[in-house]
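Before relying on records like the one below, remember that each one covers exactly one chain. Contacts with other chains, cofactors or solvent are not represented anywhere in the record.
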Amino acid sequence: MKKTPKGTPVGVDDPYLYVSKCDHLTGEGFCRLVLENRNVEDSFQIELEGNEYVCPVAERKWKWENCPYFRYRASEKICARCGLEERLNTHDNSRPLLERHHLSYIENRANEEGKMGHEITVMLCRWCHAKVHKSGARINDEAEPDRNALELMEKRKSAEMNETKFESARERYNRELM
């Protein structure tokens, strides 16, 4: 299993199995990085210019691993391991239920293979994140959300529902004065 620079497990053998698409890939198959940023390696720039900025992975000429600028940062609002959904309290500073979990560590990959590393992250709930790092659990394990996580999610969901119900200013104001 892959490990962090500190030696804790990350929960996967192959981080690329968890990638849906590169963050730089547009819906039309172009490389947004080269289109918007000219500060890329000359050989990479020339290769993409010669192919009208079409991503070589989108054309199946390369795999994600071959791109020197590949990046995948999950944006889903659900835990990749247990399926817990995020519920944010927008009116306070409470900690989110989900956190980004790094599958690939840039400095670690660069040292191992002698080339630029890739950033690959997925979303995990705080409880699954701890299990992966502390007990060596795998991301692809069949897991149910932790009981404490479900309780907290339901508490937040209930607070959200209370905020969305209609109550006139007079009713709210009078109740707060009592």
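The helical segments are 32-36, 42-50, 106-113, 126-135, 147-164, 169-177.
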